Structures are given as structure tokens and as C-alpha cells.
Amino acid sequence: MHRAPANRTYATLFVLSALLAIAGGGLARGQVSNRPRPDTWVANGPVWAVVRTASTIYLGGAFTYVGPSTGYGVPIDAGTGAPVAIYPKVNGIVYACVADGAGGWYVGGEFTRVGGVERNGIAHILASGAVDGAWDPNADDSVYCLALSGSTVYAGGEFQNIGGQARNCIAALDSTGAATAWDPDADDVVYALAVSGATIYAGGDFFSIGGQDRYYIAALNNTAGAATGWNPDSDDSVLALAVSGSTVYAGGYFSNIGGQDRSYIAALNASGDATA
Fold first, then answer.
1. Is the model's pTM score more than 0.85?
2. Least confident of 28-42, 66-80, 129-143
3. How is residue 41 annotated by DSSP?
């Protein structure tokens, strides 16, 4: 049984099915669509009562917010905090996103459609807000983390096949969405990735990756995906990674990493030791 990553947040949105009969949108009189209208607002909790007058709909329930349905992932305006106006809705959980450098985004998670286009677990959304029709790695299970280096997208998760190839929990994808020859072959889930130059850092629940025993955290070269000598040897799951210069910051469930007692968060140097 895999432990859910710490940043996994579930939001339940209740579509107001009672509103389907209102303004049928092209249906003949008396007909009711069996599909929610995309412009119908949603609530963040159960709706127990709906009453309609000529110009107003009254709702009652255990909610604290009612507003437009954005789907599970959407960019937020840095100035206003409001979601951007045009963005394709994602029909499932988004765990990871990374900017493509051209105004668009790569997203990963547990979903099957983005903007009405079939995309399993991973997708590329262009700056225009359209789904990239040519990039479709089609993961067979969840994608928990993404990192970008040049035109290569590194993905980690719980998948066994992605980009048209067998890849256990970690893969590199080229500009067409195909898996490259890079194959660290992790033996368990990868929750975190970070790239620094020619090195890809990985964190997760694995005991083996890149052809070596590595407990929960590893550094991999960008050629074949072999593990380097860097080995902090965590005693429990690593769920988050960030790199600044020669320092790697790690977060997770561990209490010892890099040869030192460190509860849940640590800074690791180029030798893999925990810093003071």
C-alpha cells in the first residue's frame, strides 16, 4: 500500500444536477440533458436544496463557496489571484505542473481528459490554452512529478508504461511525447524530481533506481539514467526536492537522511551529507 504524497489534496465539487432542466441550451421543450452544462457554477460542499424563482436560483447546503467550475488545474493571475479566463478543464487530480518556457504548461496527475481531449495522466497545454494534439505520452497510471530540461520532460509516478515504452515509475519524454532511451527503472513510486545540469534528482518510495540500491532518494545521470555516487540514504519516503547551487533540499517522512537526524526536511551537500 503506497502512502499518498503530502501535497495530494482532494477537492469534491458537487455539480448541481437540479439545474440541468434550466435553460436546456438547444434541447426541445420538455427534454432534459443528462450532461452538466460547462458554464454551471459549482459548490465546495453538498447542496441539499434548490429553489428557483423567475430570475433567481436559491441554494442551501453545507458549502462555503459557489463559483465557476475551473476543473482541477488552472493558472492563477499573479496580480488578482483569479483563475485565467481561458484554460482547458482537467477532469481529474493534477499533482504536478511545469512551465514549458513558451507560455504553456506540462501537467501530470490522475486524469483522463484535458479540455475535452483524451489525455491519460500527462498532457501539454499550449500558451493559447489549447491541448497540444501532437504530444501524448499516454501514461498507464498516475504521474506525480515533472521536471523540464531543454526539450526533455522528466516524469515520475506510479506508471509502468509511458511514451509508448515500458518505464517503471520514471521516464524521460522527448518533444514528440515519446520515451527516450533514458531508463533508471525504479522499483517503486517516484514522487519528486529536480534537475541540475546533467543530474536528475529523484525522491520517492524506491529501494533501487539507476541500477543501484538507493533508499528513497538518488541522483541520476542524464545519459542512461544510472545512479551516481551521491547517496544520502534516507530512512523513509522523500516527497519533495529542490536544488539551489550545490545544495539539494529534501522533504518527506524521514527522520534520518545524509547521515544525520533530520525530521521531515533537510539540506544535502554535494557529497550527499546533511548540512548543519
1. no
2. 28-42
3. -
